[in-house]
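>> received
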Amino acid sequence: SDYLTKARPRARISRDAHDVGVQYGRMFAQHGLPLSQAVDGFFFFRNMVEDSVTSSLRTGATTAAQVQETHRHLTTLMDQVMRGIVHGYEVPAPALPAASEA
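>> returned
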């Protein structure tokens, strides 16, 4: 919502979306979930977000150009989440020090 309405800087929200994806990717990888299943989960999530945005666009007075721009921004944001998920699988989180090392 903030990304689409410019309530916060889009660059920051884009980084946040990537970071969320990385966290999910690492969590899924640590639990042994194959990347293909993580991608399927992302598609489910993305479709829910798109449906929500589409519903809100239908209730307001929007032009075709506004719908197209919103779709472009939403796609950009979702792409960042997906990139983050893949990154989370490729680059594992740094290991935490053992209790005896802390």
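>> DSSP finds four helices and no strands in the chain.
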